[in-house]
Amino acid sequence: MNEQRMEQRTDQCVKRAVELLAIDSPSGYTRQAAEYVMEAFQRMGLAPEMTKKGGVLVCLNPAAPEEDALLLEAHVDTLGGMVSEISSSGRLHLTPLGGMEPNNGESENVRIITRSGKAYTGTFQMRNASVHVNNEYHTAKREYKAMEVVIDEEVSNRADVEALGILTGDIVCFEPRTRVTESGYIKSRFLDDKLSVAILLELADQVVSGEVKPTRRVWEHITVFEEVGHGGSASVPAGVSEAVSVDMGCVGDGLGCDERKVSICAKDSGGPYHYEVVTALIEAARRGGADFAVDVYPSYGSDVEATLRGGHDLRHGLIGPGVYASHGYERSHRKGVSNTLRLLAAYLA
After folding, report:
1. How is residue 106 annotated by DSSP?
2. Do the beta carbons of residue 215 and residue 348 sit within 8 Å?
3. What is the C-alpha end-to-end distance of the chain, expressed in Å?
4. Does this model's pTM top 0.90?
5. Percentage of the chain surpassing pLDDT 90?
6. Which residues are tagged catalytic?
């Protein structure tokens, strides 16, 4: 693919990511994001299906032989919160959905989604958050039992909150604050893993258009429970012998990846990835001219490891665009997007 066409593909991928990031989808509340993905595949002329768990499964080239198929996995669910208690003063106490760090979410705007579908806004704050009142503000540990959601409504007690229709178990969505800079950086909460979902959507369009011609059958599974550990544990189609998670690549001290590269993971907290798959991914990156790094992630788990724990006998791998400040206010770059597309195109060919 020439550079001009790659720039166009990257532009489209970033646009898809921005659209997805604007759709709230903490684990357990992913229907709207999954419908966005379904509709995107349908516009390409593909025939996606929604799994019983709420994910999206699609075959990119159903005319190809069934055996020795490849499954690519990415997840559209994100971190978030759930109301665990309504206090006597009308504030909301939260329990996390996934690894949402309370210290990172402090002072963030949130949306509270009621069971009726009505949304209210609020702010996630330290309790007694006024510095001029709380002399322990600077030293207090930021943990969920010390934090609360202040609702942007005139409420003074639990009854006032319940009158709004807010209940324990309601979903709390954190503002993503998505920005795309002129220098090519993409900043937002939840780039993990909506950026890679956008990449897989763009790859699907490349296959449908004939720009990428896979040598075997290729499936994509957009999962919806990765952040809580079981997204990829089911819905593996017949004939799949290999699965690759396309998730965020880690960026940090001791690692070779940065936001402009595609990361190939050799090992994470779940153990080594399949040696032959990692080798083939490295070779594909070189063939495709992708700027890449091979890294070992100290604290990480992926959809494809959930697939293995689900009892599926297959080879496994993990790649993704470099993302800094994971599970926080994350940052990647359009070069990381294009390098991931280059690797995937070469791997499929």
Report:
1. T
2. yes
3. 12
4. yes
5. 98
6. 226
